[in-house]
Amino acid sequence: xxxxxxxxAEDLRKSTYWNPQKNSSGGAPKFFDPSxxxxxxxxxxxxxxxxxxDKPFDSPAVLVVGHQTDGKSALVEALMGFQFNHVxxxxxxxxxxxxxxxxxxxxxxxxxxxxxDDTLGKEEELSLPELQAFIExxxxxxxxxxxxxxxxxxxxxxxxxxxNLTIIDTPGLISAAPGRKFNGMQQQARMVENLVQAKMQNxxxxxxxxxxxxxxxxxxxxxxxxxxxxxxxxxxxxxxKFDTRIPQFARAxxxxxxxxxxxxxxxxxxxxxxxxxxxxxxSGRVGLTRDSMFRSNDHFREAxxxxxxxxxxxxxxxxxxxxxxxxxxxxxLSQLRHFLERLLQQRYLDNVPTIVPVLEREHRHASNKLxxxxxxxxxxxxxxxxxxxxxxYQHFLEKIPELLRGTLAAPPRxxxxxxxxxxxxxxAFVSNDGRPVSSENPIPNAEMRLFGGAQYHRALExxxxxxxxxxxxxxSREDIINACGVDEVHDGVNYTRTACVxxxxxxxxxxxxxxxxxxxxxxxxxxxxxxVAMYLLQKEGRILSGHEVFLKKxxxxxxxFVDQRVKECQEKCREDLLSTxxxxxxxxxxxxxxxxxSVLHPDARVDExxxxxxxxxxxxxxxxxxxxxxxxDQKLMDLVENTLWNRxxxxxxxxxxxxxxxxxxxxxxxxxxxxxELKFNCFFLMPLLNDFSHHLRNEMEDAFDVNLDLVFNVKNxxxxxxxxxxxxxxxxxxxxxxxxxxxxIHSQLEVHSGASPATVAAAQAARNGTSFRTAADREMQISSxxxxxxxxxxxxxxxxxxxxxxxxPTNAGVRQQGKTMNSPGTVQSGRSGSxxxxxxxxx
Length: 843
Known about the structure:
By secondary structure, the chain is mostly helical. It contains 31 helices and nine strands.
């Protein structure tokens, strides 16, 4: 190794690489020094608070995103200055690791603090081997479960070589191979992508997008990042493993192309840093084994510096020139480290005005929840529990009729079902051969997402159409002969009896399954009203939070009532079907002599498909009309009637029996449709509206008398409330501590900025539930408001001058002169004229 390179590495190490305190300029105030512990500690605690208590805010942080083997964990370790994570091939990181790095010049060795999942945000100091063991055990546990977890492992590191950064190392994106053989890997890839996408949605995070390729047209990681940040406005692109890229370039033009990608390959002028960064991390692990490359973390840091210097030397050799300052600012890990630290510090300062009112709002919210929890604990006695239970089920009973009669209080896109979804979840109408039956005519409102009474009516309409269109199966010779049999009195054939036997048998086999399917469908529709009713109660603030056992008791009672009523309706419908198919009443089944005439005579034939208009018999006028037939047809009917009992069945006999079967079948079908619909309306819908309230009251009051503790699960509810109280108290304690820190920081900022309009606007936006991303956004907003106010003032002053000008002769004279000459402060037209009006001299 030559001396020049050693001296360059020594100069780099002595400059600013491992000493963040040297980043500040001598003239900057002490508060803006990067080593300010108060600012970074406040944001570190804010991130812990947001992760532990699932808050809607978070602190700015650097989110590292990349594919497997892109070098994410190695890059994070190089930024920290020591190795602590498991680095290797495959999916090693299965849970994001949030590392709050803090510079501490007294920490010669890394001081590690871990926020465990069951400590309510409290830190526990661990040794470095203990921290490594915990992280590896978490990854091994999730690997055995074949899962990932979005909750961060929150780690705090204090070290004399650490920058002041908060970095979140995410699981590596997976490029799974296509094909059914790799279904498991494809499922893991989707899980990781969903986890990382959810993290990137946070607007407070700076995305560190790692790319491991030699061609910028291969946007492997950028493709995923740009789904959340299309213009890369909060993204820093990093090309990793740069030491392996440089030897691949044969010409200086190739190096230039890679370091300055064309706009069509990396077209994002808003990208943070102005372009991609280029980094290299030496391979190898720290340890004392034979396979270890570095004996200590000091040795590792020395290798990181030497690797960067070697890259710069080789890069300049291939370019045959020295790097420009803009190129050097993006080459090497030290440049990336300094850029991220300055960027994150600026984000910290920009967000202080918005965080203070947000913390105040969250503090009020948590205080109200704590007060409610304390009140619920005080109400855990029998009398108050009974009263709360009675009030709740009374409100619940009001919601069921409301849903059946129709309401818009619940969103259909959440609770509604289209007819196709209803078929999947509640079952479709199926024929005897197991195939779904569809109507020839479209079902009304089939594509609409319905619930409650509207969905109930659509299901009955579908039943009416489908069953009304079911045709009688074809009657064969074998069916007729087998249905004839032998009578106990004579051996003649009664084809009228044969037609009745065939018709009622076919009708029973066809219609009974439809009755069962309709009951199952309507039970599904009724049970779906339970979550809708609970949503409406929660929306109105009447839900009993924490009393899941009581709510399940209400739901079980409702489901029991629905099932009972459905079974009763199905039984009544079967009784009607049995009575209709056990004995044929010709006036009901339209099968008398006039019915036969209507079958044979083409002009008087009854339309079998008109199920809804079928009548039970024909009127006297219709009989007289049918009697007026020509003599030829009359002889044919007489011949058929005289030979109807002949076993020597001919074609005309087969046709007559078949048509007679269809006539009886049609009458049964019409009666079944009307009867079933009437039964479900009377014995299912009406009880839901009128009888369920009595049923629920009786069941709940009986349960109150038997064992109130079992109904409300008092022991577990009390334990859950005490746990919630403990968690809220810990949350408030930490929030008050953080509030004090941010209030102090905010006051210093106001003193320094003189309560600038940007700070006031940011605070106002936070109180209103919105936020400004950066200081630039705030200043642009303030500038826009100022310009608009100036334009309005200009227009107002001009209007006032025009109104009062005719009262002053002097001004009138000036106006007359202004038409022909350009006097000072007065012009003929244009913007300068507006400035003249607004000038103090003219006003």
